[in-house]
């Protein structure tokens, strides 16, 4: 019981850190893709308007 409780308390910060890192990198990749598509697509405005 004691060892499992230590693992449980230590696993929460690790899980939170891993999830925040994953979210941060996915948001960065999404932003980079958006910037590349908006810069490299000159026909975007003419097509939609």
Tell me what portion of residues adopts beta-strand conformation: under 5%
Number of distinct beta strands: 0
Rounded mean pLDDT is: 78
Biggest pleated-sheet summary = none
Poorly predicted ranges (pLDDT <50, ≥5 residues)?
A: none
Q: Classify the oligomer.
A: single chain
Q: How much is the radius of gyration in Å?
A: 21 Å
* Helix content estimate: over 70%
Number of distinct helices: 2
* Envelope shape: rod-shaped
Descriptive report:
With 49 residues, this protein is mainly alpha-helical. It has helices spanning 2-40, 44-48. The chain is rod-shaped, with a radius of gyration of 21 Å.
Q: Layout of helices and strands, plus pairs?
A:
Layout: H1 2-40, H2 44-48
Pick out its properties.
rod-shaped, 49 residues, mainly alpha, 90% helix
Briefly say what this structure is.
The protein is mainly alpha-helical and 49 residues long.
């Amino acid at each position: 019981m004691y060892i499992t409780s230590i693992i449980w308390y230590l696993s929460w910060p690790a899980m939170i850190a891993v999830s925040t890192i994953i979210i941060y990198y996915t948001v960065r990749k999404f932003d980079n893709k958006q910037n590349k598509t908006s810069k490299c697509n000159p026909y975007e405005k003419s097509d939609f308007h």
